Amino acid sequence: MAPHSSFPEDVLIIGSGVGGLSTAIILAKLGFAVTVLEKNTHPGGLLRSYTRDGIECAVGVHYLGSLDQGQILRKFFDYLGVTAAIPVTRMGQDGIIDRYIFDTSSVNYPATFDLPEGLDAFEEALKQTFPKEREAIVSIVDPIRKAAEQLHALDLLYARQNDFSLLDQSQPLGKILDDLGCSPGLRSILAIPSCWIGVPLHECPAYYHNTALASYVSSSYRLQGSGSAMADALAMRLQELGGRIVTGAEISKIHVSSRVVTGLQLKSGESLPATTVIGAVHPKVVLQMLPQEAVKPSYRQRISGLEDTHGIFSVHARVDANSHPEIPYNIFKVDTDSDGNVPDLRYYQIRKSEKEDVSLLSILTSGKDELWAPWLHTKSGRRGNDYCEAKENHARQLLREAEGLFGSFKGLKILDAYTPLTMRDWVNSPGGSAYGVLRSSSQLLATAMLNRTSVKGLYLAGQNVMAPGIIGTIMGSFSTVKAILGADEFREAVRL
Known about the structure:
Layout lengths: L9 E5 L3 H12 L3 E6 L11 E3 L2 E3 L6 E2 L6 H9 L7 E3 L7 E4 L10 E4 L3 H11 L4 H19 L2 H4 L14 H8 L3 H13 L9 H13 L1 E4 L3 H14 L3 E4 L3 E7 L2 E7 L4 E3 L2 E4 L3 H7 L7 H8 L7 E9 L9 E6 L8 E9 L5 E9 L2 H4 L11 H23 L6 E6 L1 H8 L16 H4 L10 E3 L8 H17 L1 H7 L3
Parallel strand pairs: 1-2, 1-14, 2-10, 7-16, 14-20
Antiparallel strand pairs: 3-4, 5-9, 6-9, 7-8, 11-12, 12-13, 15-18, 15-19, 16-17, 17-18
């Protein structure tokens, strides 16, 4: 499709994660000349897995939701032209997507709760587990159904008015559950999806929680290959459409004249002219690239004052496949308090690896910034033996805890562990934040319309624009293109 005469023709995109690549593909399909600039040696950002002992270790993609025909992520992948290039395996075929394991010493909680596929099954599972709270459960699930309908119908994307006019569930979910008088056990089960997006229950707008849960329960899949294969599929699709990806291209400055973007400067000293620039990285990183006078003090203060989500710690280990075969669902070990809040959890996957006799055990949990504070001002690869020892000790502690659930691990070998500092340095995420800007009720106004900046021709994309996760990030990419084209042009040009 040739670009409309009113469209800018050349676009530079900073960052090649799922946000940068999907935004680039959308624009390339519309006829724009797109160049994606990536500071690392390979495109993909958190999509890209890495190899240890010949085994692919996932970073940012552990499962995908809403990939069935007619559902939102399937519509996105079909439009981007990558559905066939990203093979997946359906979860929940044995009735379980996730298993939540609670502290059985408390009578307020079930020992376990199995999350099924489908909202009807989810509602019934809650009622079976909490038979005295059936009325409250109906009041909880009905808005989730509404969120699912809006999500799959792309209501937020195609609305002509302010996108946030549809966020009629902005009250914190914790307050809603308080008003319904929910038990701590029911509350804790409903708190887990807010943990997926890095927002505590008492701060999580109900809409974000409900959308995250709806997208996952609607249908759930795992990648058959690696996150790197998914990154390569997106990169190849962009190149098929005539887009360019330049790796090893770290940006030092965004050039601005009279609050109009004019291009970029690389750390190598090379300058690239452009009338449209998209920062598919954290807004604070974009802000650091701008001249002081390029934006109003109020905008700089708003962006620099944004609170971010926490970081994560992850450990990958190999175990004997005969003793520890793949488990076709995810497992969460959930910490709770007396009120049903979830201060922390551990996420486990045991999956087949590239080696027939080896399974890959992955554990994710909160980053615990205080553990890594001594190395806050260091860079990856230059942190010394003490840091490596601290990582290994924390990893072994998590593995010992995991053996309480899975039994003694046979053939155990730690492949790798990473901290929030790793994440910070690799993808330039402030503080090592895993999910970007905190989507809390108190920040709803501050985070509204983050894809627009006060510099003409400069836009933002990535997980910070609308919501984290693959769906939230790609939704943000379409929203950014909508901001560039205008709502009416977007509705005409982009048909999903």
